[in-house]
Amino acid sequence: MRVRAPATSANLGPGFDVFGLALREPYDVVEAVEIPEKTARIKVMEGYQVPVDPRENTGGYVVLSMIRDFDLDKGLELRIWKRIRPGSGLGSSAATAAAAAYLVNEIFDLNLGLEDLVHYASLGEVVSAGVPHLDNVAPAIYGGFTIVSSRDPLKIYGIDPPSEIAVVVALPEIEKGSTKKAREVVPKEVSISDLVHNVGKASVLAAGMALKDLEMIKAGMADVVVEPARSRAGIIPHYEELKSLGEALGAGVAVSGAGPAVIGVIEKASASKLASSFKEFYKSKGCGCEVYVTEPGPGVSKLEER
């Protein structure tokens, strides 16, 4: 069985560890083949290299966890076409983990619901980030825009974004370091004024998604806690300039997850202009940049069976 596993963008500004968005491009392809041993095997067929030890691969870790919890009598070999760049801020590790949870559920007829799939996919994030965070794996499973409202008990809401949204992704050739490091610089305490600001902006963004109001979504993409802290730590270069660039072009701009990817949300008719502006901006900084013009997309979905 083969699946398409999407890139995702987490946080969208003020929604740290809560908001996530599935993207139509880029995506990984993951194929699973049953094996008689109760274990996981990993093969990278093409694209970016990721760990092949199943205990160090997010998908392999998910397969091992589900074999254990459901006492499965067989295992899976995962064959990965890794098109989402690891360490990009586009949920590369989550795509593999979500694909693995989906494939185990389908192949072994476990009949798990979406929230259970998110739970198992999140276990894979321990391998890459040190904690089982949900903001990438939730949209990777659900598709569209997701809100993780509670972890215990797990509660996730899925919302279809407005159809006129374009998402422009700028992926600069910058090494941000590990996601674990990016999480370590997040403030442990915030002022009440910063809390009020982020709650207000996050509310506007979520309401904009539900009401299909793109201007509300753009207005809500303003964080005063996590993104500035990561900028001060040197993890997000040129942060203030990028926010100003987006504002000048009428786009909502946010760092995608822990970066270095940056996303701009804008009307589809203006997407190419924003893409060119992102590319020129990074060129002016002496930095190469890959740009995707995409839109919200579905979660993990089945491709052709073999």
Characteristic key phrases:
306 residues, 10 helices, globular, alpha+beta, 26% strand, Ribosomal Protein S5, domain 2, 4-stranded antiparallel beta sheet, Alpha-Beta Plaits, 2 domains, 7-stranded mixed beta sheet, 37% helix
Summarize the structure.
The chain has helices at residues 58-69, 92-107, 114-129, 137-142, 179-184, 192-211, 214-220, 226-232, 239-248, 271-284; strands at residues 2-10, 19-35, 40-47, 75-82, 145-151, 154-159, 165-172, 252-255, 262-267, 289-294, 301-302. By secondary structure, the protein is an alpha+beta fold.
Task: Tell me what you see in this structure.
The strands form two sheets. Strands 1, 2, 3, 4, 5, 6 and 11 form a seven-stranded mixed sheet that branches. The chain folds into two domains: 2-159, Ribosomal Protein S5, domain 2; 165-294, GHMP kinase, C-terminal domain (Alpha-Beta Plaits), CATH 3.30.70.890. α1 (58-69) packs across α3 (114-129) and α2 (92-107) packs across α3 (114-129). It is globular. Helices cover 37% and strands 26% of the residues. It contains ten helices and eleven strands. With 306 residues, the chain is α+β, with helices and mostly antiparallel strands.
